[in-house]
């Protein structure tokens, strides 16, 4: 996927046309949109592929993935004609000059040629069996959602559909898709006025079509996408977190109780991780401290010691600088929000 993204970026810089819409998470989306201007009025449209895994024709899926592998290998021909896949650690697979038979396994790596990898795609897609008691069924349409390979395979198939459709458009129509982003089966279109005429044909094939459900908000000047709430202000995109659990009409238990039977490092890891996430997402400091307040209020309810929360606020402010807030001011803001959260929780408890 990384090689295909680099190929597309080179084409986009020369022509202004993007065909690779994949993002791996909210960080990729924020990084991409931070480099763009939000031309008013901004219109967001979002869609969800409700049958992506179950409706893929397996033959078409295998062809698409193998063609993507060929496309990527043509760009990297100078670096290799196969892959080295480490068995240990978190190192990704890399291109390499593989000059032996299709597969070679050593103690720490698997070396595999491009042809060998393409053959494995057919094996993975075409050999899914489901057992229910004494009945064993062979899956011949779609791929299972729960396997490690399924998200990558589905991403490549969707990329193949998108690339082919964009290549069939005029240059002007293709440029309308410049601000298009997709995380697996969630798709975001920004300022694409003709999307209604494109969204259906883009994901249809003679053998099957991906069913789409629109999830666009009634107010199209903002959107909620992959855990982000996105709007625009003065020509810039503005981000803050979005937690759908807060929209539920019933209370949701969030974060581990401090007095539960868990290691006490875990609750503090949760608080630290959420503060880091909010800080990475929020464009404006006021949004960050608002979400920090919600976190602190919930932590106090879950019996987290306030003294330790105060220490964590200071340590976080010292290690996570924001361009729009001085370090000392950030610590002050966090401590004020913590004090407010403690007082609000006490009042709530006294009224019960």
Largest beta sheet: what is the strand line-up? Answer: 8-9-1-10
* Secondary-structure content class: alpha+beta
Main sheet, how many strands, which sense, barrel? 4 strands, antiparallel
Oligomer: single chain
Total of helices: 12
Mean pLDDT: 87
Shape: globular
- Using the CA coordinates, give the radius of gyration: 24 Å
Indicate the percent of residues in helices: 40-55%
* Low-confidence regions: none
Give the helices and strands as they follow along the chain. HHEHHEEEEHEEHHEEHEEEEHHHH
Question: How would you sum up this structure, described in words?
Answer:
The protein has helices at residues 2-15, 26-34, 52-55, 58-75, 114-126, 150-167, 171-175, 195-202, 265-281, 285-301, 306-319, 327-350, and strands at residues 44-49, 82-86, 94-96, 103-105, 109-113, 129-132, 135-138, 180-183, 186-190, 212-214, 223-225, 228-233, 236-241. With 352 residues, the protein is an alpha+beta fold. A hairpin with a 2-residue loop joins strand 11 (223-225) and strand 12.
Write the layout of secondary structure elements.
Blueprint: H1 2-15, H2 26-34, E1 44-49, H3 52-55, H4 58-75, E2 82-86, E3 94-96, E4 103-105, E5 109-113, H5 114-126, E6 129-132, E7 135-138, H6 150-167, H7 171-175, E8 180-183, E9 186-190, H8 195-202, E10 212-214, E11 223-225, E12 228-233, E13 236-241, H9 265-281, H10 285-301, H11 306-319, H12 327-350
Antiparallel strand pairs: 1-9, 1-10, 2-3, 2-5, 4-5, 6-7, 8-9, 11-12, 12-13
Helix pairs in contact: 4-5, 4-6, 9-10, 10-12, 11-12
Compact description:
By secondary structure, the protein is α+β, with helices and mostly antiparallel strands. It has twelve helices and 13 strands.
